[in-house]
Amino acid sequence: MNRKLLRSLREYKKESILTPILVIFEVFMEVLIPLLMANIIDVGIANSDMNYILKTGLFLILLAVVALFFGAMAGKMGAIASSGYVKNLRQDIFYKIQDFSFKNIDRFSTSSLVTRLTTDLTNIQMAYMMTIRLLVRAPIMIVLSLIMTLTISPKIALILLITIPFLGGLLIFIAKKAHPHFIKVFDEYDILNNTVQENVNAARVVKAYVRGDYEKEKFHKISSVVYDLFTKAEKIVSWNNPVMMFTIYTVVLCMVLIGGKDIIIGTMETGQLTSVIVYALQIMTSLMMVSFVFVLIMIAQASTDRITEVLDEVPEMTDKADAKTEVANGDIEFKNVEFSYAGEGGALSLKNINLKIKSGQMVGIIGGTGSAKSTLVQLIPRLYDVTDGSVMVGDVDVRDYKLESLRDQVSMVLQKNVLFTGTIYDNVRWGDENASKEEVERVCKLAQADSFIREFPAQYNTMIVEGGNNVSGGQKQRLCIARALLKKPKVLILDDSTSAVDTRTDAMIRKAFREEIPDTTKIIIAQRISSVEDADMIIVMENGEINGIGTSEELLKTNAIYREIYESQVKGGSEHEQQ
User: What phi-psi label fits residue 467: left (phi over 0), alpha (psi between -120 and 50 degrees) or beta?
Assistant: First the structure.
């Protein structure tokens, strides 16, 4: 087991230590049982001594009960240890993911992280439980059974001494041959989970475009790949049982042959031969356990590597020791900013950005698809770090703030709106978990959400299903805006977050912003000119650069891109209405 992962044992160390100790006591009891059975046959039955048979039988039952007790306790402790270990490990991974920046998350797909938190951790749990139980039990059982056999019949013990390394080596060889196939299958699991996730999330689109058959075929293909890989691995592992059975029967025949001769000549008793056969079966069974656990460990090793990869990922953004916790105001300044998603040396998404925004201003950002509008605003709450230059909020570099404090004061409604399972109250209170009912309703009114919420039978207690699929796109956007407003931020960023609402509602939202949060800096990314036309300042983006800055009137005179967009939307719309 990986030492780094074992740190997650924490409060379950006691159970992890007790489990193998209990297993050792269980094995000692089980090793004594065949010896007592031999005595019953060779002494009690041979001499027709009923008293001896009863006494030894009762002692035999007592040993079996004690062995059962130790076994049950070992199973209980092992279950607690393995379940607790993986519970802590899952928690550590989840908390680690929470510290990831967008850049860190981009390195792992969502489906891959889900697989690691589910299938991979299940593999680790199974391997850990089997390790502290069976992998402790098997070697001790083999050694003690071999010692007992040696005291009864050195010739039979010699057969076992030859058989054990041969069979052990063969089983390890089988496990190693299967291992590469188990490694490959987890990468395919990531793809399988991604296919399922996409299909479930986009169920409406799949049905709308009648692409059910295509999605079924896609799922069938990847599912077949997983099936083939597992089949190849299981075909190899399936040799374990026949090889083991063949060896056991061969060894038993040899033992009967040798033991039978010794019984005939009087150097061995019948009961002794019986106990030797039991010891041989215990040894063979233990070898089977070792091979089984070895396969589980090899599968878990692939999972361990994938989990370690997540835990070893270094969060790109960390708080400085003297990080600031107070954002003075909503002033924003970009100084010679350049940014690449690939880091230094990569293709630049933003180039030479210099920009000043005063606290309380309403700023519009407009530009064509791929002009890096969203990239620009994502640098303000430090969802990504600049590649070069600096972004200032409240006259302080965003990298000098404590991340939590910065993001508390820079509220952002992303392009892709997300709601969570729970009531409307629960969702809006993501902005402030301690907000009163009145505060929630107030921000919903500002976001023009109160009217449609009142139409629901349960109103603010209406349950939102996973992803917010029971509300429209425009309703979802307004709830997300209300959630952002509840934070009472110094800076509010709307990344194309009113695209699904009508122009009248859009205008009412902007009016509410001006009147209710005049001191908050408001940045609105939009595709519609009407959404930014009345802004104090409009920024025109093109190919990752600022192509123009000014009011709507100024840009109509000086900026060709803005004028072209304006004419295609405003003038074009008017001509269409006249026709």
Answer: left
What is the pLDDT averaged over residues 228-232?
79
pLDDT beyond 70 at 375: yes
Three-state secondary structure call for residue 172: helix
Residues in the chain: 579
Residues ≥6 apart with Cβ < 8 Å to 145: 31, 279, 280, 282, 283, 286
- pLDDT-derived band at 217 (thresholds 50, 70, 90) equals confident
Q: Count H helices, E strands: the chain?
A: 22, 12
Q: Which of 460, 464, 453, 476 is nearest to 420 (CA)?
A: 464
pTM for the model stands at: 0.68
Sequence-ordered list of residues with C-beta below 8 angstroms from that of 282, at least 6 positions apart, any chain? 30, 31, 34, 141, 142, 145
pLDDT tens digit sequence for 74-93: 999 999 999 999 999 999 88
How far from 486 is each of 225, 331, 403, 551, 568, CA to CA, in Å?
A: 48, 20, 19, 29, 36
Residue 576 neighbours by CB under 8 Å, 6+ apart: none
- Taking residue 46's Cβ as centre, other Cβ atoms within 10 Å add up to 13
The pair phi, psi for residue 299, each rounded to 5°, is -65, -45
CB of 286 closer than 8 Å to CB of 279: no
Is residue 546 classed as helix, strand or coil in its secondary structure? strand
Give the best-scoring range by mean pLDDT among 105-114, 163-172, 517-526: 517-526
